[in-house]
Amino acid sequence: MIDTNLMKWPEEKVQALMSHYKEILALLGEDPDREGLLKTPERVAKAMLTLTRGYDVDPKAVLLGAKFKEDYHQMVIVKDIDFFSMCEHHMLPFYGKAHVAYIPNGYITGLSKIARVVDIFSHRLQVQERMTLQIKECIQEALNPLGVMVVVEAKHMCMQMRGVEKQNSITTTSDFTGAFNQAKTREEFMNLIRNNYQ
Fold first, then answer.
1. Is 128 a catalytic residue?
2. Would you state the torsion angle of the CA atoms of residues 3, 22, 92, 111, taken in this order, to the nearest 10 degrees?
């Protein structure tokens, strides 16, 4: 787990963002020089750099850095991967779980690397549909498996806090390649991610 409190961001980036956030506070009708808001521009600048840190990492390189030859050809599933992301339309959070499966074709990767790929793509300004596609394509390109399937379930604050204000709606997206084009394989994956194992 990354301790975001220890992250060091380029000072020029932090300063540039701070000046913009100070101006935003004033435009909203606040006094950016009052005691409670004095450090807000710096805090928000660092928070935004943390929430978009995925731009600085190559997810394909993460998978290739832990790629191992293995004669295993059954489904590998990493499910219930928690994520937080920022909707690019309103810059409000969406959050939920990603479930990822692939069928190796001579090579596997470290299980934590699948979760890391989700983390990298979610820490960018996103739409859920594109994030789902990017995770799938990254694993397919890096490992060349017999198939990949990704299912993402999320709640969107832009729907909960503004617009239609629907609090309990969940958006589900999926994408797949190769062996998962067969309905039976997709069904097996869906059954496995719904199974509680408890």
1. yes
2. -20
